[in-house]
Design a protein that fits this description.
This protein is mainly alpha-helical. The protein has helices at 8-24, 36-42.
Length: 53
């Protein structure tokens, strides 16, 4: 059985979604279970930009 590989566009959209989830939403143990965006906002640092490809 032959399975189709994802297109480059599909890969890029998935990578974009993962990076944004990781930086905007995912809690990080090393940041007191805050996302990098939440940590930056609470400590008055530059916001983590939302990645768009």
């Amino acid at each position: 059985m032959h399975t189709q590989r994802p297109t480059l566009g599909q890969f890029l959209r998935a990578a974009e979604a993962w990076v944004n989830f990781y930086n905007q939403e995912r809690p990080h143990e090393g940041l007191s279970n805050l996302s990098p965006l939440q940590y930056a906002q609470q400590h008055h640092l530059q916001d983590i930009p939302y990645l768009t490809l």
